[in-house]
Amino acid sequence: MQPAPITAFSLVSALGHDQAAHAHALQAGASGLRPQGFETAALDAWLGVVDGVDDVRLPAELARFDCRNNRLAMLALRSDGFDAHVQRAVVRHGARRIGVLVGTSTSGILQTEVAYRQRAADGALPDWLHYRATHDTASLAQFVQAALGLDGPAWVISTACSSGAKAYAAAARLIALNVIDAAVVGGCDSLCMTTLYGFRALELLSNDVCRPWDTRRNGLSLGEGASFALLQRDDAAPAAWLLGCGESSDGHHMSSPHPEGAGAVAAMQAALVDAGMQSSQVDYLNLHGTGTRNNDAAEDLAVCSVFGSALPVSSTKGHTGHALGAAGAVEAALTLLALRQGLLPHGLHCEQPDPTLRANYLHAPQRRTLSVAATNSFGFGGSNACLIFGAAR
Question: What percent of the chain is modeled with pLDDT above 90?
Answer without folding.
Answer: 90
